[in-house]
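Lab notebook, bench 4. We co-purified these components, and the gel suggests they stay together. Before we commit to crystallization screens, I want a quick structural picture of the whole thing.
Request: model the full complex, all chains together.
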Amino acid sequence: MLQIKKINVSVEGKPILSDINLELKTGEVVALMGPNGSGKSSLAYTLAGHPKYLVDKGKMFLDEKEITGLTPNERAILGLFLANQAPVAIPGLGIKSFLWQIYKKFESEKRMDLVKFRNWLDEEADKLQLKNGLLDRGLNDGFSGGERKKMEVLQMLVSKPKYIILDEIDSGLDVDALKIIALRVKRMVKDNKVGVLVITHYSRILKYLKADKVVIIEKGKVKEIGGMELVEKIEDKGFEEKK
Amino acid sequence: MSRFAPIKEENKKKKWEKSPYEYGFSSPEKYVFKSKRGLNEEVVRMISSMKSEDKKMRDFRLESYKIFLEKSMPTWGADLSTIDFNNIFYYVKAAKNEGKKWADVPKEIKDTYDKLGIPEAEKAYLGGVKAQYESEVIYGSLLKRLRDKGIIFCGMDEALAKYPDLVWSHFGKIVPKGDNKFAALNSAVWSGGSFIYVPKGVKVDLPLQAYFRINTQNMGQFERTLIIVDEGAFVHYVEGCTAPIYTTDSLHAAVVEIWIGKGARCRYTTIQNWSTNVYNLVTKRAWVEENGVMEWVDGNLGSKINMKYPSVILAGKGAHGEILSVAVAGKGQHQDAGGKCIHLAENTTSRIISKSISLNGGRSSYRGLIQMNKGAKNSRSKVVCDALILDKESRSDTYPTNKIMESEVTLEHEATVSKIGEEQLFYLMSRGFEEHEAEAMVVNGFIEPIVKELPMEYSVELNRLISLQMEGSVG
Amino acid sequence: MKYVDVLDQVGQFKEVKKFLVVSNGQNTEIETLMEFKAPKTQGNTLIKVVVMPGGKLNLKGVIKINKGAELVEAFLRQSILLIGENSMATAIPELEIESNEVKASHAASIGRVDEEQLFYLMSRGLNRDEAVKLIIEAFLTE
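Here is the predicted assembly.
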């Protein structure tokens, strides 16, 4: 279980999240929704350990282990994966060897050899409908928004995390791409009991990836917690009603 | 101080420090001949007579020495004030086994060789323990193949003796003895270096490496290299290596001259990693005839002070020059590197890509010149210089000069200086990599456009060397 | 002509824009220096010069970021348009950076009137001189 216990977070002295409580179990899908500027992405970065986001009060736990003071890589090794909203590009960083390095970090027993790994990569990239030749480029170098999101998913498949945070993965994706990604994540939930925190302000992705719990956040605070019925309410009336 | 979570002391392997190359030989050096310290006319004459040279070269040396005395030190560039010309040995002819023991090679260097996975035979050579690379068995047949095609590849001393007309057709013409103080010095006391002649239309299919020349003293202080690529021919020459070269010589002033005939092409790759007691001041220039191509691939890692600006003179119509340069300046180092392209003829093109990194108080400067003379109509040039400064103590400079005397041309120049992006670091760390691993990945990605032009073994070694530097486990 | 701008107050922002013409036979030297001494400063320099036939330009531009000047953003652009015969220019954009929390970049371009643009304007009825004049005006406006 991923637990956030009453955290207060600030950025450069400015408070952006207050008294946030959240639980995500393995095999569970939790949707985090809210209007722009509500603090959704801030929560994602805080969980992942981004240096700009300081936890002033409260604690976070991953499978009972406290992660509040850990570095981003320590959290990743424990099984946390953040799929970024706007993944950065790192020109010159060859994707294939990058993914191989990640693979070696996370898979110690029963490892594929390099050749098998590359073939497997090509297959998965195909299933995600990533253009041929893209994997020969530098990381996200010249990639469209949609291609970058797919790269995030590909990395997920390599490191096999326990808990995934999808930060607005639906923005900038066309319907087909969204469906592919959502179904892929759904499979990970079903087969590997991955816990998923879906951050979004549209309900589109939830059509394919049903949430067990829906959390509404606004102005840095949790407003309401419920089930999928909340999603319908938002679709009808938007976020403004939720005051 | 790490920005990422509370610092854990055991994780903080960030500092890169090269320890001073303190060494002492337990056994006295054994030399066949060693000149006294310092330079005067007598030393120059003696060098010439030790090599049994004819009057023409002896006079060339003596004239050069006079010019060296007259010329003043450059007022720009790195700080050369601590060079003591009187405290240097200008000529040493080493015995077969120099008397250096493997035990005397500094531990940091041996560790680096281990970490880079350098084969045993090469380690001894690189460590200065063996004066020659005993490669007769491996390379003997290769050299024969070259000779059969009419290619000449030998030491400069040998070339002067065997092919004087060919050598004098270009020797001292592309880099004249009066070009600058250090070219004058080299012209007076040069010893060793390579000579390559590639006949018309011959394309040398594998890179020629300096250590193929098994009977000549390599990596000398005052190497003189001359490469002549006749019409339509091609050659790729590689010198140096990424592993740190341990040397007691503190002043290196080499000269490289390259002549490229019509439609010919030459690529010259250098990776320099001299120990940090060395002043490396090199004059490298190529003269390119019509439709010829010159490519300099220049890796600058070592030395205390490195001043090197590979140049291309685009003398014939349609000639093209490229300079790809990477420089890494660590603690106590000043890399002053770049390139020069001089467009003399119409339709000539040039491209300079420079990537430099400064860390731990190092200083990396790009110094370049693009000149287009009147008459160089329809010429184009593009220069891109990017620099990474990794910490507060380090420094980066860019000194480009663009001198255009012809209106029918295009010149573009761009430069950026920045640190490693925090977002990039966070991203990589969130994938499980430690901070220093992430930094190394970004840095290697930064220099990738140059590194991918290096022969494979070099590029692998270079990436690993940089990763080691960032980890702080070397030195 | 020398233009010196120093940013020594935290949070300062400066923008320098100079558009000039070097006339026939004129010999002009321009030097700009933007020095960053304080943190969180931002400075942009844009120099655009048209060099007429027989004119000569020496343009030097320096961006200097001192130690301790963190979170600085500095940009310098030198654009030179050479017209006709015997016009010459030397452009020297320099950077001296001693702080690493910076974003500094510069760009220099030297070129001639774009043939495509010329053709386009002439195809609209302008003669060559008129077209060149328009292009120069546009160059000096942006």
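The interface with chain C takes residues 374, 387, 389-392, 394-419 of chain B (CB under 8 Å). Worth comparing against the SEC data before the next meeting. Residues 139 and 212 of chain B are 7 Å apart (CA to CA).
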